[in-house]
From TrEMBL:
Gene name of the encoded protein: ruvB
Annotated protein name in UniProt: Holliday junction branch migration complex subunit RuvB
Gene3D superfamilies, A to Z: 1.10.8.60, P-loop containing nucleotide triphosphate hydrolases, Winged helix-like DNA-binding domain superfamily/Winged helix DNA-binding domain
Entry annotated with the keyword Lipoprotein: no
AAA+ ATPase domain location: 64-197
SUPFAM superfamilies to which the protein is assigned, alphabetical: P-loop containing nucleoside triphosphate hydrolases, Winged helix' DNA-binding domain
Record organism: Streptomyces orinoci
Positions annotated to bind DNA: 304, 323, 328
Amino acid sequence: MNWDEGSTPATHPGDRVVSGAADGDDQAVEAALRPKDLGEFVGQERVREQLDLVLRAARGRGATADHVLLSGAPGLGKTTLSMIIAAEMGAPIRITSGPAIQHAGDLAAILSSLTEGEVLFLDEIHRMSRPAEEMLYMAMEDFRVDVVVGKGPGATAIPLELPPFTLVGATTRAGLLPPPLRDRFGFTGHMEFYSPDELQRVINRSARLLDVDIAADGAAEIAGRSRGTPRIANRLLRRVRDYAQVKADGVITGQVAAQALEVYEVDGRGLDRLDRAVLTALLKLFGGGPVGLSTLAVAVGEERETVEEVAEPFLVREGLLARTPRGRVATPAAWSHLGMVPPQQVTGGSGQRGLFEG
Ligand code: ADP
């Protein structure tokens, strides 16, 4: 299959089958696939072990668990873990997100309706408005908020006692949080990308739940293309299941998975059409770089932000592209991944290799 020449780059990042963010289709299926307790939750050994201690200790004391901050890329299991925390504490859970809380009043309304021990999951906590954030400080520390009634000089702050609750905050980058907020969490868990073995376990588990027949090499093939992310693994599994049903006998073997994912333009390493367009332009048009981000974006017909925020993080993480002060540069691995030879090697010079050594 020809991956590069003449292909139109993906234009809508949200449509990507390899996006870590949830789409509408995911949300319906994800509820069924979410592990229900810590024992079922695959991988993240350290976070799981530490969280297990935090929850057991709280249960032993008959107290509400400490506030928990979970950081990590989309699709790594932060929402799932927050639900597990609630389940393990035998508590109800309320789910909201930073962007949904624009006014302190929005937050006050949520906080004042919590029941004792309830878990409040606040996704994208770094995107909350400043006044809401300040209200949260006090609520987390003293289980109290000041509700301002009236306007101007006549405004008065009425203190409102809250029942003890557990806040589970999720963020893609803990570094984005102001230190006063970060410090109010009793426990911070950093979610890592999953190894292919762990993803294979996620896929096998999901296949069981979805009643899909999958061979070991089928699960391995999907795992290798899932970019370290369970949400992507589950999504690719569903796409491959469709293919297996229509084009094969319904059984997902390694070969069936590979053929299916070629149709969806996800290559052996999990790169999709956009990723490959960026790398191909970098290699073919700019000899591997360095080239400026804007120039590269124009060459692939995408917005600068799309290249920078959607394609590059994975390419950098995979060691295929480097961001240098002089511009974007392809690594030797990028050349070999696309089956091309760097020009320096053709002429025998060491060329840009120096950029990656030492
Ligand atoms: P996040 O909140 O970090 O974006 P989610 O918790 O919504 O991610 O997880 C996305 C999907 O991936 C869920 O449907 C869940 O089934 C699956 N998933 C995530 N982490 C795990 C895991 N450790 N084990 C099994 N499935 C997982």
